[in-house]
Specification:
Order of helices and strands: HHHEHEHEHEHEHEHHHEHH
Keywords: Membrane, Mitochondrion, NADP, Oxidoreductase, Transmembrane, Transmembrane helix
Structural class: alpha/beta
CATH class: Alpha Beta
CATH architecture: 3-Layer(aba) Sandwich
Protein name: Hydroxysteroid dehydrogenase like 1 [Sarcophilus harrisii]
Distance between the termini: 67 Å
Subcellular location: Mitochondrion
Main location: mitochondrion
Oligomer: single chain
Largest sheet: 7 strands, parallel
Number of strands: 7
Number of domains: 1
Helix content: 55-70%
Number of helices: 13
InterPro entries: 17-beta-HSD3-like, NAD(P)-bd_dom_sf, Sc_DH/Rdtase_CS, SDR_fam
Length: 332
Amino acid sequence: MALVIKKGDIFIDNIVKCLRDSSLSQYFALFGASTIVYIAGKTVFQLMNGIRIHFWSRFRRVNLKESFGTWAIVTGCTSGIGRALSLELASRGMNVVLIARNLTHLNELSEYLEKNYEIQTLIIAVDFKDIGIYEVIREKLKPIENNLGILINNVAMVQDVPTYYTKISDTCIIDSINTNITSISLMSKIALQSMVKRRRGAILNVSSLSGVYATPLISIYSATKAFVNHFSRNLALEYRPKGIHVQNLIPMSVKTKMFKNIWDDDTVKSVVTSTTDVYAYNAISTLSRTYQTSGYWRHSLAQWFIFLLPSSLVEHKIHSIMRSSMNSKKRN
Protein backbone atom coordinates (compact mmCIF):
# COMPACT_ATOMS: atom_id res chain seq x y z
CA MET A 1 0.00 0.00 0.00
CA ALA A 2 2.84 2.35 0.91
CA LEU A 3 4.48 1.57 -2.43
CA VAL A 4 1.31 2.52 -4.32
CA ILE A 5 1.05 5.82 -2.44
CA LYS A 6 4.71 6.57 -3.11
CA LYS A 7 4.29 5.93 -6.84
CA GLY A 8 1.21 8.14 -6.83
CA ASP A 9 3.18 10.97 -5.26
CA ILE A 10 5.91 10.58 -7.86
CA PHE A 11 3.32 10.71 -10.65
CA ILE A 12 1.79 13.92 -9.28
CA ASP A 13 5.24 15.48 -8.85
CA ASN A 14 6.01 14.74 -12.50
CA ILE A 15 2.77 16.40 -13.64
CA VAL A 16 3.53 19.52 -11.60
CA LYS A 17 7.04 19.61 -13.04
CA CYS A 18 5.67 19.40 -16.59
CA LEU A 19 3.21 22.20 -15.94
CA ARG A 20 6.05 24.38 -14.68
CA ASP A 21 8.02 23.77 -17.82
CA SER A 22 8.07 27.00 -19.85
CA SER A 23 7.55 25.34 -23.24
CA LEU A 24 4.43 23.55 -22.00
CA SER A 25 3.10 26.79 -20.52
CA GLN A 26 3.60 28.48 -23.86
CA TYR A 27 1.73 25.65 -25.56
CA PHE A 28 -1.26 26.06 -23.24
CA ALA A 29 -1.15 29.83 -23.68
CA LEU A 30 -1.16 29.43 -27.46
CA PHE A 31 -4.01 26.94 -27.26
CA GLY A 32 -6.02 29.30 -25.05
CA ALA A 33 -5.40 32.27 -27.34
CA SER A 34 -6.37 30.22 -30.40
CA THR A 35 -9.59 29.14 -28.71
CA ILE A 36 -10.49 32.74 -27.86
CA VAL A 37 -9.76 33.88 -31.41
CA TYR A 38 -11.86 31.03 -32.82
CA ILE A 39 -14.84 31.77 -30.57
CA ALA A 40 -14.59 35.51 -31.24
CA GLY A 41 -14.30 34.95 -34.99
CA LYS A 42 -17.24 32.56 -35.02
CA THR A 43 -19.37 35.02 -33.03
CA VAL A 44 -18.52 37.90 -35.37
CA PHE A 45 -19.29 35.73 -38.41
CA GLN A 46 -22.66 34.69 -36.97
CA LEU A 47 -23.47 38.31 -36.15
CA MET A 48 -22.59 39.54 -39.64
CA ASN A 49 -24.46 36.64 -41.22
CA GLY A 50 -27.51 37.44 -39.10
CA ILE A 51 -27.38 41.09 -40.20
CA ARG A 52 -27.12 39.99 -43.83
CA ILE A 53 -30.05 37.59 -43.56
CA HIS A 54 -32.44 39.62 -41.43
CA PHE A 55 -31.63 43.29 -42.03
CA TRP A 56 -29.66 43.76 -45.24
CA SER A 57 -32.32 41.71 -47.03
CA ARG A 58 -34.85 44.45 -46.29
CA PHE A 59 -32.83 47.03 -48.19
CA ARG A 60 -32.03 44.75 -51.13
CA ARG A 61 -35.26 42.88 -51.61
CA VAL A 62 -35.25 39.97 -54.02
CA ASN A 63 -37.66 40.34 -56.92
CA LEU A 64 -39.47 37.05 -56.43
CA LYS A 65 -41.15 36.99 -59.85
CA GLU A 66 -37.92 37.62 -61.73
CA SER A 67 -35.83 35.30 -59.59
CA PHE A 68 -38.15 32.32 -59.38
CA GLY A 69 -41.36 32.62 -61.40
CA THR A 70 -44.75 34.30 -61.35
CA TRP A 71 -46.71 31.73 -59.33
CA ALA A 72 -46.35 30.56 -55.74
CA ILE A 73 -48.07 27.70 -53.92
CA VAL A 74 -49.00 27.93 -50.25
CA THR A 75 -50.36 24.88 -48.43
CA GLY A 76 -52.45 25.35 -45.31
CA CYS A 77 -53.09 28.91 -46.41
CA THR A 78 -56.40 29.91 -44.82
CA SER A 79 -55.17 30.68 -41.30
CA GLY A 80 -52.10 31.37 -39.21
CA ILE A 81 -48.68 31.60 -40.80
CA GLY A 82 -49.95 30.20 -44.11
CA ARG A 83 -52.48 32.98 -44.56
CA ALA A 84 -49.93 35.63 -43.63
CA LEU A 85 -47.42 34.18 -46.11
CA SER A 86 -50.07 34.24 -48.84
CA LEU A 87 -50.76 37.91 -48.15
CA GLU A 88 -47.05 38.73 -48.15
CA LEU A 89 -46.46 36.96 -51.47
CA ALA A 90 -49.44 38.74 -53.02
CA SER A 91 -48.15 42.09 -51.78
CA ARG A 92 -44.95 41.39 -53.71
CA GLY A 93 -46.84 40.72 -56.92
CA MET A 94 -46.87 36.92 -56.89
CA ASN A 95 -49.87 34.99 -58.16
CA VAL A 96 -50.84 32.45 -55.52
CA VAL A 97 -52.13 28.88 -55.61
CA LEU A 98 -54.15 28.46 -52.43
CA ILE A 99 -54.36 24.90 -51.10
CA ALA A 100 -56.39 24.02 -48.01
CA ARG A 101 -59.42 21.95 -47.09
CA ASN A 102 -62.08 24.59 -46.36
CA LEU A 103 -63.53 25.82 -49.65
CA THR A 104 -65.42 28.70 -48.04
CA HIS A 105 -62.26 30.08 -46.45
CA LEU A 106 -60.35 29.55 -49.68
CA ASN A 107 -62.90 31.55 -51.66
CA GLU A 108 -62.81 34.37 -49.11
CA LEU A 109 -59.02 34.54 -49.19
CA SER A 110 -58.92 34.33 -52.98
CA GLU A 111 -61.39 37.18 -53.33
CA TYR A 112 -59.46 39.32 -50.85
CA LEU A 113 -56.11 38.78 -52.58
CA GLU A 114 -57.42 39.45 -56.07
CA LYS A 115 -59.27 42.57 -54.98
CA ASN A 116 -56.55 44.14 -52.84
CA TYR A 117 -53.39 43.11 -54.69
CA GLU A 118 -54.63 42.69 -58.27
CA ILE A 119 -53.07 39.28 -58.67
CA GLN A 120 -54.40 35.93 -59.88
CA THR A 121 -55.23 33.02 -57.62
CA LEU A 122 -55.93 29.35 -58.12
CA ILE A 123 -57.91 27.41 -55.52
CA ILE A 124 -57.38 23.73 -54.73
CA ALA A 125 -59.61 22.39 -51.96
CA VAL A 126 -58.11 19.17 -50.57
CA ASP A 127 -57.47 17.59 -47.18
CA PHE A 128 -53.82 16.64 -46.67
CA LYS A 129 -54.85 13.84 -44.34
CA ASP A 130 -55.92 12.00 -47.50
CA ILE A 131 -52.97 10.55 -49.43
CA GLY A 132 -55.05 10.20 -52.58
CA ILE A 133 -55.13 13.94 -53.33
CA TYR A 134 -51.86 14.36 -55.19
CA GLU A 135 -53.01 13.35 -58.66
CA VAL A 136 -55.79 15.92 -58.30
CA ILE A 137 -53.22 18.56 -57.33
CA ARG A 138 -50.98 17.65 -60.29
CA GLU A 139 -53.85 18.05 -62.72
CA LYS A 140 -54.97 21.38 -61.31
CA LEU A 141 -51.41 22.76 -61.41
CA LYS A 142 -50.84 21.96 -65.09
CA PRO A 143 -51.98 25.39 -66.38
CA ILE A 144 -49.33 27.19 -64.30
CA GLU A 145 -46.54 24.60 -64.02
CA ASN A 146 -44.27 26.43 -66.49
CA ASN A 147 -44.39 29.53 -64.29
CA LEU A 148 -44.26 27.88 -60.87
CA GLY A 149 -41.62 29.76 -58.91
CA ILE A 150 -42.17 29.14 -55.21
CA LEU A 151 -43.63 26.34 -53.10
CA ILE A 152 -44.29 27.00 -49.42
CA ASN A 153 -44.90 23.78 -47.49
CA ASN A 154 -46.73 25.22 -44.52
CA VAL A 155 -49.58 22.83 -43.79
CA ALA A 156 -49.23 20.98 -40.48
CA MET A 157 -51.31 19.57 -37.67
CA VAL A 158 -50.83 18.75 -34.02
CA GLN A 159 -53.10 17.14 -31.45
CA ASP A 160 -55.60 19.43 -29.72
CA VAL A 161 -53.75 19.58 -26.39
CA PRO A 162 -50.44 18.27 -25.00
CA THR A 163 -50.85 14.69 -23.80
CA TYR A 164 -49.04 11.40 -23.40
CA TYR A 165 -48.36 9.52 -26.62
CA THR A 166 -50.43 6.47 -25.62
CA LYS A 167 -53.49 8.68 -25.23
CA ILE A 168 -53.35 9.94 -28.81
CA SER A 169 -55.71 8.13 -31.17
CA ASP A 170 -54.31 6.01 -33.99
CA THR A 171 -56.18 8.22 -36.44
CA CYS A 172 -54.48 11.34 -35.10
CA ILE A 173 -51.05 9.73 -35.46
CA ILE A 174 -51.68 8.66 -39.06
CA ASP A 175 -53.23 12.03 -39.94
CA SER A 176 -50.22 13.83 -38.45
CA ILE A 177 -47.79 11.79 -40.53
CA ASN A 178 -49.80 12.34 -43.72
CA THR A 179 -50.23 16.07 -43.10
CA ASN A 180 -46.75 16.87 -41.80
CA ILE A 181 -44.53 14.42 -43.70
CA THR A 182 -46.34 13.00 -46.73
CA SER A 183 -47.49 16.46 -47.82
CA ILE A 184 -44.04 18.04 -47.83
CA SER A 185 -42.54 14.98 -49.53
CA LEU A 186 -45.02 14.79 -52.41
CA MET A 187 -45.64 18.52 -52.84
CA SER A 188 -41.88 19.03 -53.10
CA LYS A 189 -41.65 16.33 -55.75
CA ILE A 190 -44.47 17.90 -57.77
CA ALA A 191 -42.87 21.34 -57.61
CA LEU A 192 -39.35 20.14 -58.34
CA GLN A 193 -40.43 18.33 -61.48
CA SER A 194 -41.53 21.69 -62.85
CA MET A 195 -38.69 23.79 -61.44
CA VAL A 196 -35.85 21.56 -62.61
CA LYS A 197 -36.94 21.94 -66.24
CA ARG A 198 -36.44 25.71 -65.97
CA ARG A 199 -33.48 25.47 -63.57
CA ARG A 200 -34.97 27.97 -61.16
CA GLY A 201 -37.39 27.99 -58.26
CA ALA A 202 -37.57 27.98 -54.48
CA ILE A 203 -39.08 25.71 -51.86
CA LEU A 204 -39.72 27.12 -48.40
CA ASN A 205 -40.49 24.57 -45.69
CA VAL A 206 -42.03 25.73 -42.42
CA SER A 207 -40.66 23.64 -39.58
CA SER A 208 -40.41 24.34 -35.84
CA LEU A 209 -37.94 24.51 -32.99
CA SER A 210 -39.81 21.42 -31.76
CA GLY A 211 -38.03 19.57 -34.54
CA VAL A 212 -34.63 20.56 -33.16
CA TYR A 213 -35.25 19.65 -29.53
CA ALA A 214 -37.32 16.79 -28.17
CA THR A 215 -40.71 18.16 -27.17
CA PRO A 216 -42.52 15.65 -24.97
CA LEU A 217 -46.32 15.53 -24.90
CA ILE A 218 -46.48 16.55 -28.57
CA SER A 219 -44.08 13.79 -29.56
CA ILE A 220 -45.48 12.95 -32.99
CA TYR A 221 -45.51 16.62 -34.04
CA SER A 222 -41.96 17.11 -32.80
CA ALA A 223 -40.76 14.02 -34.67
CA THR A 224 -42.42 15.07 -37.93
CA LYS A 225 -40.76 18.49 -37.72
CA ALA A 226 -37.39 16.80 -37.21
CA PHE A 227 -38.08 15.07 -40.52
CA VAL A 228 -38.79 18.44 -42.15
CA ASN A 229 -35.43 19.80 -40.94
CA HIS A 230 -33.42 16.89 -42.28
CA PHE A 231 -35.42 16.53 -45.49
CA SER A 232 -34.97 20.23 -46.25
CA ARG A 233 -31.21 20.07 -45.84
CA ASN A 234 -30.98 17.03 -48.09
CA LEU A 235 -33.04 18.66 -50.83
CA ALA A 236 -31.04 21.88 -50.54
CA LEU A 237 -27.79 20.05 -51.24
CA GLU A 238 -29.32 17.79 -53.86
CA TYR A 239 -30.93 20.51 -55.99
CA ARG A 240 -28.63 23.48 -55.49
CA PRO A 241 -26.58 22.48 -58.58
CA LYS A 242 -29.84 22.49 -60.57
CA GLY A 243 -30.62 26.10 -59.66
CA ILE A 244 -33.28 25.35 -57.02
CA HIS A 245 -33.14 27.05 -53.64
CA VAL A 246 -34.56 25.00 -50.75
CA GLN A 247 -34.89 26.83 -47.45
CA ASN A 248 -35.99 25.64 -44.03
CA LEU A 249 -37.76 27.93 -41.56
CA ILE A 250 -37.46 27.09 -37.86
CA PRO A 251 -39.70 29.60 -36.07
CA MET A 252 -40.17 29.80 -32.35
CA SER A 253 -43.42 31.24 -31.01
CA VAL A 254 -45.90 32.79 -33.46
CA LYS A 255 -49.44 33.74 -32.44
CA THR A 256 -51.54 31.12 -34.17
CA LYS A 257 -54.49 29.02 -33.04
CA MET A 258 -52.29 25.91 -33.10
CA PHE A 259 -49.66 27.60 -30.95
CA LYS A 260 -52.18 28.83 -28.37
CA ASN A 261 -53.75 25.37 -28.08
CA ILE A 262 -50.43 23.75 -27.18
CA TRP A 263 -48.38 26.19 -25.13
CA ASP A 264 -49.15 27.80 -21.79
CA ASP A 265 -50.09 31.47 -21.41
CA ASP A 266 -46.61 32.56 -20.27
CA THR A 267 -45.05 31.15 -23.43
CA VAL A 268 -47.72 32.74 -25.63
CA LYS A 269 -46.97 36.13 -24.06
CA SER A 270 -43.20 35.72 -24.44
CA VAL A 271 -41.18 38.67 -25.72
CA VAL A 272 -40.04 36.64 -28.74
CA THR A 273 -43.60 35.74 -29.76
CA SER A 274 -44.50 37.45 -33.03
CA THR A 275 -47.72 38.05 -34.91
CA THR A 276 -48.24 36.12 -38.13
CA ASP A 277 -47.95 39.17 -40.39
CA VAL A 278 -44.67 40.31 -38.80
CA TYR A 279 -43.28 36.80 -39.08
CA ALA A 280 -44.37 36.40 -42.72
CA TYR A 281 -42.81 39.71 -43.78
CA ASN A 282 -39.51 38.81 -42.16
CA ALA A 283 -39.54 35.20 -43.37
CA ILE A 284 -40.16 36.08 -47.03
CA SER A 285 -37.44 38.73 -46.82
CA THR A 286 -34.92 35.99 -45.97
CA LEU A 287 -35.83 33.88 -49.00
CA SER A 288 -32.72 32.92 -51.01
CA ARG A 289 -30.39 34.43 -48.36
CA THR A 290 -29.70 31.17 -46.55
CA TYR A 291 -30.69 27.51 -46.39
CA GLN A 292 -31.92 27.50 -42.81
CA THR A 293 -33.12 30.28 -40.55
CA SER A 294 -35.71 31.03 -37.91
CA GLY A 295 -37.22 33.54 -40.34
CA TYR A 296 -37.35 36.37 -37.80
CA TRP A 297 -34.46 38.21 -36.15
CA ARG A 298 -35.87 37.98 -32.62
CA HIS A 299 -36.24 34.23 -32.98
CA SER A 300 -32.71 33.92 -34.36
CA LEU A 301 -31.28 35.91 -31.47
CA ALA A 302 -33.14 33.78 -28.93
CA GLN A 303 -32.07 30.59 -30.69
CA TRP A 304 -28.43 31.72 -30.67
CA PHE A 305 -28.51 31.85 -26.87
CA ILE A 306 -30.48 28.60 -26.60
CA PHE A 307 -28.00 26.73 -28.81
CA LEU A 308 -25.20 27.68 -26.38
CA LEU A 309 -26.88 25.61 -23.68
CA PRO A 310 -26.59 21.83 -23.28
CA SER A 311 -29.40 20.06 -25.14
CA SER A 312 -30.32 18.08 -22.04
CA LEU A 313 -30.91 21.30 -20.10
CA VAL A 314 -33.04 22.82 -22.86
CA GLU A 315 -35.12 19.67 -23.27
CA HIS A 316 -35.63 19.41 -19.52
CA LYS A 317 -37.00 22.96 -19.52
CA ILE A 318 -39.21 22.23 -22.54
CA HIS A 319 -40.60 19.15 -20.77
CA SER A 320 -41.37 21.26 -17.72
CA ILE A 321 -43.18 23.86 -19.84
CA MET A 322 -45.16 21.18 -21.66
CA ARG A 323 -46.25 19.52 -18.40
CA SER A 324 -47.37 22.90 -17.11
CA SER A 325 -49.26 23.52 -20.33
CA MET A 326 -50.91 20.09 -20.21
CA ASN A 327 -52.06 20.64 -16.64
CA SER A 328 -53.40 24.12 -17.38
CA LYS A 329 -55.34 22.84 -20.41
CA LYS A 330 -56.86 20.09 -18.25
CA ARG A 331 -58.03 22.64 -15.69
CA ASN A 332 -59.63 24.72 -18.41
